[in-house]
Design goal:
By secondary structure, the protein is of the alpha+beta class. Helices cover 40% and strands 15% of the residues. Helix 1 packs across helix 4, helix 2 packs across helix 4 and helix 4 runs antiparallel to helix 5. The longest helix has 33 residues.
């Protein structure tokens, strides 16, 4: 345990440890339904990625939520950094410059490895997942979706919808008037807020869905 703590909070792993703690806390919130997986994703009115989403897509890590990409990068960097730091700790030396130099090398290797692992996973996802198609966010208005990850309320909600290209994507949704929609229920998208990037939904009888098979 002493080795683990000293390595986790020693250079260079200490650069990733706080971020990993934040990532773990975030995914706990996702599991309990208090946060959604597209928290950092943003698109414009035409469905084009903007902000951090655009940056991630520009470097070839798109097609997955930004939070997933960042989680993989941080997790892989922390793991490789831990392994590298443990290996270098076996070197019998009291030279401070040497330890800083070894730490810098481990840091560089961890960053490169994290990028390689994340890129590989994202590329595999892009290869085997269907294209999203050309649906803009406004074109999703008037369609139905399924509530996922907890209840949909006025302050939180996550739903799944299938695009014209056949891909199932996750979108942030909200209700109005105090309406609460249970997990797995069908909802109708009746408005899109371009400012907040969310969709307003209401309960919908799936039997009335014209696209229902």
């Amino acid at each position: 345990m002493d080795l683990f703590l000293s390595t986790a909070f020693g250079f260079p792993t200490v650069l990733f440890t706080p971020m990993l703690i934040v990532v773990l806390g975030y995914w706990i919130f996702v599991i309990v339904g208090a946060a959604d997986t597209e928290l950092l994703d943003s698109v414009d009115g035409d469905g084009e990625a903007t902000g951090l989403s655009a940056l991630v897509s520009r470097v070839g890590l798109g097609r997955v939520p930004v939070t997933v990409t960042l989680s993989m990068l941080i997790g892989a960097a922390w793991f490789v950094s831990m392994l590298g730091s443990i290996m270098t700790s076996l070197i019998d030396s009291t030279s401070t410059p040497l330890w800083w130099a070894l730490g810098a090398v481990v840091l560089l290797i961890a960053l490169v490895a994290a990028w390689a692992v994340t890129s590989g996973v994202v590329m595999a996802f892009q290869r085997f997942s269907p294209e999203r198609g050309s649906d803009s966010e406004h074109e999703l208005v008037g369609r139905t979706c399924l509530i996922r990850i907890g209840e949909a309320k006025e302050d939180f909600g996550q739903a799944e919808i299938t695009t014209t290209g056949g891909a199932a994507i996750s979108i942030p949704v909200r209700t109005t008037g105090g309406e609460v929609l249970a997990v797995g229920s069908t909802a109708l998208i009746f408005e899109h807020s371009q400012k907040d990037g969310i969709f307003l939904v209401t309960a919908f009888d799936p039997a009335l869905d014209p696209d229902r098979p």
